[in-house]
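Input.
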Amino acid sequence: MKVFTFWERIKNNNFIIKNIRVLCVLVIAFDILTTVYFSVQMLKSNIREILTTTNNEIALYIDSTLRLGTAIANDEEIKDTTIPLVERAAKLDSYTKAYNLFMVGVLDKEGNIGSSIRHKTGYVGYRPYFKEMLATRKTVLSDQYVAGADHETKIYTLWIPYYDEKHLPEGEIAGAITMSIYFDKIEDIIQNKGDSNTAYECSVVDSRGIISANNKEDMRGMQIEDALARAKWRSMSDELVKEHLKTHKEFSYWAWDRAFEYVSYMPIPQTNWLVSMRIDVFKSYSILLWSLLLKLLVYFSIFLVLSLRKNREIWLHDNLFNMMSINTDDVFGIFDIKKNKPEYISYNIERIMSVDHDEVFNDHSLMKKYFQVDFEVIKAKLFEAEDKTYAFEREWKDKSFYFKSYLVKHDGELKIIMIVHDRTEERIKNDRLKTALQQAEKANIAKTVFLSAMSHDIRTPMNAIMGMTAIAKEHLHELPRVADCLDKIDVSSKYLLNLIDEVLDMARIENDKMILQETAVDLENIVDEIFSILKVGLYKKDQKLTIDLSGLKHRYVYADKEKLQKVLVNIVSNAIKYTDVKGKIKLEVKELGCDDKGFCSYQFIVTDNGSGISKEFLPKIFLPFEREENSVTNKIQGTGLGLTISKRIANMMQGDITVKSESGQGSVFTVAVKLKLQQENDGSGQESEDAAEALEAPPDYTGKRILVVEDNELNYEIIAEIIGCAGITVEWAENGLLAVEKVRDSAEGYFDLIFMDIQMPVMDGYTASKNIRNLEREDVVKMPIVAVSANAFSEDVHKSFVAGMNEHLAKPIDIQKLYTILKRYLTC
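Output.
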């Protein structure tokens, strides 16, 4: 019962339950760290024990040789300076043989030596160790070196001072005992600590920094600095290691050479030597390391099982929540303020926000990168808000998102719940409504501007027409005055007609209804006709128009003659208007080159020395209804649409219009177009013939009969009066049905030509023409039918031809064109 109560208390402790995984990790980490710590301490202890043992063995051996040398130095016969060196040396044989020494010798203080090897004297007073001994008055131990006849015997030498108190003053050195000892004993001690296959490496480093003994052959005789240089890493700096070696201090460090090693150095007493021990940690403690690794695997497995269980629960919850959110347009997220990381993000974030779920979950800073969502700012805003909510909008990848954040408390921890709603469709609808509203407002403004401009431009010629009409009525008996009024009415009427045509052209261009009707043309003839059209204006102002066709190589092309001519006439006529009397104008045609598809680029350059255009007005010159305001332009009539229309037509011909001008310096207009070449002259010469015909007066057509189909009596009266002057008999039909009946009921060949209006009640002109062509009589097959309509666009002309008509004459009627048609069809 007590156990149950204890576990109930544990279970009810929220801190333990919530942090159980953290506590487990801490316990595991403590266990592993303590294991590693004690393992390291054990390693250090073991290596120090081995190192100390080795050091003691070497030190005991060297100490025994020192005691032997001291005993020899205290031998009364050996230190008696009155006895010759050779005799004293002979007595040393017994020591050499008894203690297995390489050599024992006795020296006087001048450096002369008597040796147990040769029993004769020699001189070694130059040797450093002898000099050191004399200077320090102490025993000196040499480093290991080779000697003997084969120069392969390894030895080290003791230099021990001796004193002859009987024959020399007290304290005066009489000489030295030199004892050369085989190095084999020290090597045996080192070798016994292991071999080349063990994890231990034991060495003796002499005062010169040379490894004089080592249990691995490849290290013997190597400089300690070279051995140190092989290490890829060391826990102690090279400088500190070298300093400790030089001062013969005890020290240790970790290193990575050919393996992970622990290295320790210890000075050998009564010498300038160091003994070192190097241990391969992994090789020596493999069992311990494997056990540690096994423990880690066990802990990791337990932790993994617990985590998987917990993760499975989280996964199940995620799946349930994702099932709810996957088909919605809202992204859900939970952000842990304390951990500063997301706890949950719904997977529909990839579909809705076009970002990778895992990337954002693992690095929430991407939300700032992509959407400028800064969680630090959001936290601050949430803490400030009374209702603990914060909302904002962001745009990304042409999408709109609405972010709504809530600050909530769960199990005592603060979290941010964020809902992201895709508002792209709403934004698109709103944008469309705004665009529609803006377009409507622009349309209203444009309509107002258009009506204002049109009101002014229409009223100006209408005022002239009405005024001149009134003046003519007042002076009916003054024929010159009446004729003058009629001329001015004619000019104003033509201006008004031109204004209407240009407005209609602008409307068709804006609605993309203007199309090019390309036919075979001759560019030279087009230029000649332009001159013919404009020569009256040139003569009135006594101006000179120079035409330069020298740059034209291919004159026969396919083009919309009417529109190209309209552009050039507009620009040349502007040059005439804005150039003073006796001014000079030049029209130059250049061919720039042709491509492999048979298209050539042409330039029509119009240059004048007129009033020019101000720098301020140049950017607006191609805008509709724009005209420069100055003393020159204010006297000249114009709609402000001609250049706008001309530029659009040039664009349709894959070209453009550019202008260079300065006020008072004249202007240069360049019309660039791209036209397709003809393979041969396709009858373009007919153009000039037609133009020439148009200038001739009609002959007498007495006996000819024409049917005029027109629903407006005034229009009928005008055309009947014009053609009646040529002796033609005129009959009238008020609509298309009456016209069909009149032709059907007439005799063969009764009508020589029909003028057909298009828009009429009962039956329109197109239907009437088709029905007339379908009558069962021979004359209707070749009977000329000419459309007479206010619909003057190229597509209207095309409809007339499709309906079976031969010509199209636009209203108001151009009398010269009317005479040309009469001549074409009534002349036998």
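The longest strand covers residues 399-410.
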